[in-house]
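Protocol step 4 of 6.
Sequence for Helix-turn-helix transcriptional regulator (Cohnella nanjingensis) entered exactly as in the expression construct, tag removed. Do not edit the line below.
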Amino acid sequence: MRSHWSVQPIGYMYWHKKEQFLLERDTDSCWTMFAVESGQFAFRIGDREGEAGFGDVVVCPPDIAFHRRTITPLTFHFVKFAWEQDLSPEEADVLAGRWTVKDAERLLSTYRYMRELGSSFREEPAFGRMKHMIEDLWRLLEMERVSVESPAESDRPDPDMQRARQWLRERAYGPLAMSELAADLGISPVQLTRRFRAAYRTTPSGFVTELRLGRACRLLEETTRPLEWIAQQCGYENSFYLSRIFSAKLGMTPSAHRKLHRV
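Step 5 output, structure tokens:
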């Protein structure tokens, strides 16, 4: 595994609920990264293909065709970059493809900083901070030791837990019952919690909370809608409950978060 993660950012764009790609096949002269915040897309890079959703980062080396197709509206970070130290062909081959981050809370925090820096990332100090965040993302991927091409069987979440995560992603912003998911999988709620935590380092309810708060942050930053409306869009019954969860998890009220991003 590579030990030097220094990169040179070249381009950055944040897309919110993109319905489809303008080009379903593209080739770039630099490294590119699609870091998914919500939604799903199908991809093919050389002989690697699959689907990517929240927690997945798809990386394409230079001068290789990147085939992609949205499955559901896609919110993602698109990054162009170059490595500051040359890669061997073997390293480039290992780094290409899909990586998966299990630490959803840490990942959402990195994504939030990238969004904040994106509008002015070509200027200092934003450029240096964006460089740091991209390198931090690579180090996070490396720390979790997720293999790109042929992960060890013990590193893969079992199919039931992959199915559980997809079920939760699809229902995160509406009423849901963990007992229904457990019954669907044919296991008890206690088994669901234990197995999901082992696979993704968070509980099913914790995973849903991270998704909901991620959406709440974006709506606070990007709209002037009232908190009651935002709460409903994020799966909470009312603004009071959203405020309580938001403050407990993020250390500030929703109104303070919105004010911070209006400066």
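Step 6, annotate. DSSP finds ten helices and seven strands in the chain.
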